[in-house]
Write a structure and sequence with these properties.
heterodimer, A: Butyryl-Coa Dehydrogenase, subunit A, domain 1, three-stranded antiparallel beta sheet, 10 helices, B: Butyryl-Coa Dehydrogenase, subunit A, domain 1, 11 helices, 8 strands
Chain lengths: 332, 398
């Protein structure tokens, strides 16, 4: 038993960090703010070439052949870097090797998004909000009964002019067709489980990044003749941020390891629990990060709000938090 | 990241499990909580059984008489004991987890030979004289003085939160041997025999009605200089050294007990929902996710200790999260118990009754009330947040 990152996993994280720093610097990303096409095909292909969408695909199928734990390490770094786009859906699609329309997902030549088919209580007609619709080559509709494939270009949709996260364009889809079935209920359950874990990893990355941002700001910002980080009121906010970030990361990584090593626990319980905590940690830490930044945290210029809005988008993609909690309870 | 245990670790688990399965049915009934001589006899008898089977001081180094187990084996050991519902470490706590490891690390050969074997065998019981009425979170401001007089120190002052003082043979005592202004640089670590003249013990009753704590009043107590562990005025460092024995396993038993409690609360909730009552499933699931996460964090901290030999930064992070979680577990339990949570007496005929497979309302009340100590004892949550902010995050001291 050694629940620390292996040296390979540390190297993997550093590699992804370097890619993020080189290609996805926040200043460059922000040029896309508010446009319907945030995902650039070149960037996506670069991620694909780095193996981001084929991490868990066996080497025999052209993938990297790693475990979900390694994927969680990668996605934590992508979350930390606020890399936009349907990262999780494209990674999941990369594993569905039998579906011709998804063949380019693994190498990043096809951008694949996903949407949960609305359940009860979503209105009549139900509200369907799809992320990055203009950039998508394929859209996977996730339903407990199975997965279906929809042509995103054929959808009757309106782009929102002001998405909450300026780097996650949103489109309202008027009607979601049944689509072409590509996986049964078991496939859908696996999709949701791994989506919970990898989205949780993105959230864990945001929780860590916002903790770092707040701590750095608190060390430098002077008021009353001393760094604001010397005040207990600020220290305790930051300490709580670290606790949330570390607990969330441990939960998500344990869930990923449990998928790779099912003899050590219940992967479904771990996945739902990790997603629940990581999404909450991301939102709560981003909120605290704004508070620590004071007035500057409320400006558009300072990028802290981008983390909060991304956290909200990711949390929303996981479904209602009480539902995740109920999934944990059902298996406790 | 690997959560599987090695064949050697599994073998250690299997051996321990088999031993416990044979032994536990032969143990006598637990004594009354307020019967301290009875509790001492029960707890030390358990320690003797552990010692005879080679499970005493599992985490102590071999040269100290321990088993020298790895942090992972220590985790397995604590996990198996909790799952088997063995007796708790009880009155042996200070000796096994604090005073003993301190003497292992800092004691003279004579001190090790004199004091360690009786701790491991359960022959002698220790208590802790650290906190004072005016030195709690600010422990280094302690005022109990020790003045040299020939081969003795003469000790005057008072101590508080001294667990098991009434039945202890020795006290690990922090005293001021330097001027008060020296703070942590003027403290020494002494072994005080509890039968020395001049010690008055006054039991302290907690809000849970329990009596494990006491106040000590020390009036001219003579402690031989030979009983000092470490150099004079170096007692603060000696105390801190002990912390390096902590491998992230301090709360393993209580964490697993919490998971078991939540499992039964889930069933209590299901029975209540079946009866048409309100549904607290979401609260159960939220706590379940957090407990699972802290179990993962425990294994991370143990892994860090195994790799580096020193405790990771995770201890304070874990304690902050777990102490507050434990309080919310207490709140959920008493919420489910309803008006049965207004009495400590175990009631029957309720969904929470032990007879219905529940934890029992008295246990739930106890969990809730004792929860308040969790964010205070061993470093308040406020102090823990300062530690996390300054030592881990590197924020400047205020």
């Amino acid at each position: 038993m050694d629940f620390e990152l292996t040296s390979e996993q540390v190297a993997l994280a550093e590699l992804v960090r370097a890619i993020v720093a080189g290609r996805f610097g926040l200043e460059r990303l922000r040029r896309h703010e508010g446009t319907p096409n945030v995902v650039e095909p070149d960037d996506w292909a670069a991620l694909g070439e780095a193996g981001v969408f084929s991490l868990t695909l066996p080497e025999a199928d052209g993938g990297v052949g790693l475990g979900l734990a390694d994927a969680a390490v990668v996605f934590t770094e992508l979350g930390r870097g606020l890399v936009p786009g349907p990262l999780v859906a494209s990674h999941q699609a990369g594993a569905l090797t039998g579906v011709a329309d998804l063949a380019g997902a693994a190498d990043g030549t096809t951008v694949v998004g996903s949407i949960r088919r609305p359940g009860p209580g979503a209105g009549d007609p139900p509200l369907v909000m799809v992320e990055h619709l203009e950039s998508l080559d394929a859209l996977v509709v996730v339903d407990p009964a199975g997965l279906a494939l929809v042509d995103p270009g054929a959808l009757d949709a309106d782009d929102a002019t002001r998405p909450l996260d300026p780097l996650t364009p949103m489109a309202r889809v008027r009607a979601l067709p049944p689509g072409e079935p590509i996986a049964d209920a078991e496939g859908a359950a696996t999709w949701v489980r791994d989506e919970q874990i990898l989205t949780g990893a993105l959230c864990a990355g945001i929780a860590a990044a916002t903790c770092d941002l707040a701590v750095n700001y608190a060390k430098g910002r002077q008021q009353f003749g001393r760094p604001i980080g010397s005040f207990q009121a600020i220290k305790h906010l930051c300490a709580d941020m670290l606790v949330r970030a570390e607990v969330a990361r441990a939960a998500v990584e344990a869930a990923a390891v449990t998928v790779d090593q099912p003899e050590v626990g219940d992967p479904l319980r771990a996945a739902a629990g990790g997603a629940l905590l990581a999404a909450e940690a991301a939102v709560a830490n981003a909120e605290s990060c704004i508070q620590v930044h004071g007035g500057m945290g409320f400006t558009w210029e300072v990028p802290v709000h981008l983390y909060l809005m991304r956290a909200r988008v990711l949390a929303s993609s996981l479904g209602p938090a009480p539902q995740l909690a109920a999934e944990v309870a059902a298996r406790y | 990241m690997d959560l599987r245990y090695s064949p050697a670790e599994e073998q250690f688990r299997t051996g321990l499990r088999a031993w416990l399965a044979d032994l536990l049915p032969t143990l006598g009934p637990k004594p009354d909580p307020d019967d301290w001589p009875g509790r001492r006899a029960y707890d030390t008898a358990w320690q003797r059984l552990l010692a005879e089977a080679g499970y005493a001081g599992v985490d102590w180094p071999v040269e100290g008489g321990g088993r020298g187990a790895s942090p992972v084996e220590q985790l397995i050991y604590l996990e198996e004991l909790e799952r088997a519902h063995t007796p708790y470490v009880g009155v042996n706590f200070v000796g096994l987890l604090h005073a003993g490891p301190t003497i292992v690390a800092e004691g003279t050969p004579e001190q090790r030979a004199r004091y360690l074997p009786p701790i491991l065998r359960g022959d002698e019981v220790w208590c802790q004289g650290f906190s004072e009425p005016d030195a709690g979170s600010d422990l280094a401001s302690l005022r109990t003085t020790a003045v040299r007089d020939g081969d003795d120190y003469v000790v005057n002052g008072s101590k508080i939160w001294t667990s098991h003082a009434e039945v202890a043979d020795f006290c690990e005592l922090l005293v001021r041997t330097g001027p008060h202004e020296t703070k942590h640089r003027g403290i020494s670590w002494l072994i005080m025999p509890m039968d020395a003249p001049g010690i008055e013990i006054r039991p302290l009753r907690t809000i849970a009605g329990s009596t494990e704590f006491a106040e000590l009043f020390l009036d001219g107590v003579r402690v031989p200089v030979a009983n000092r562990v470490g150099e004079e005025n170096d007692g603060w460092r000696v105390t801190m050294v002990t912390l390096s024995f902590e491998r992230g396993t301090a709360f393993v038993g209580e964490l697993l007990q919490s998971m078991e409690l939540l499992h039964s609360l889930r069933q209590v909730n299901a029975r209540r929902v079946a009866d048409g009552g309100p549904d607290l499933t979401v609260a159960v699931g939220r706590l379940g996710a957090e407990l699972d996460a802290l179990w993962a964090l425990t294994r991370r901290n143990v892994s860090q200790a195994a790799r580096t030999g020193v405790p990771g930064i995770g201890g304070s992070v874990f304690k902050l999260a777990f102490s507050e979680l434990r309080q919310r577990l207490g709140e959920l339990g008493t919420e489910l118990a309803g008006r049965a949570a207004l009495v400590w007496d175990e009631l029957d005929g309720l969904p929470v009754s032990a007879s219905a497979g529940g934890p029992g309302n008295g246990v739930l009340v106890d969990t809730w009330v004792n929860g308040f100590s969790r964010t205070i004892a061993a470093g308040t949550s406020q102090i823990q947040r300062n530690i996390v902010a300054e030592r881990i995050l590197g924020l400047p001291k205020g």
